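Chapter summary example.
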Amino acid sequence: MGAEVDIQSLLEAANTGDPAKRQQLFAALYRELHRLAERELRGVKATISPTTLLHEAYLDLSGRQGVSFPDRARFFGYAARAMRGLIIDYVRSRRAQKRGGAFEITSLRTATPLPASDDAELRQIGSALEALSEVEPALAEIVDLKFFCGLTLEEIATLRGVSKRTIQRDWEKARLYLHGALQE
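The structure predicted for these 184 residues follows.
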């Protein structure tokens, strides 16, 4: 009964808004609040510890002005609601990060590369690509899709219904052919 009276007097003193009295109340009820935090976390897939949850709830409770606790039951009810709210916020933020919430959307330049320096070089590239299309039309199409349409190798593979690795091999063949044709 003496401990209950002491807690009741701490509750009354904490209701005056004195931070030191709230801290004394928190220290006196620490073990019970820790058990409450453990109970709140039971069954929740959260990587937050009961101690961290308890301390976050204390910071929330101590920062509130005008909140009074007429008795022990209401104090624990308020502490439980504060802990539950912190758990919900924590789980939401973790799920948002898991679903890409921490990513920033950036834009990439979409400007096309500068054209070749002279007409002779352009004609040479054009004729090498025409020669490739006569020998291997599929390889010439990959070059067109990659350079002139701006598609990635994955997008080209999806478009053609083949694996990305197949497109990579064909891309290497086309590059070797064009490199050889331009060197002549």
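To summarize the output: The mean pLDDT is 78.
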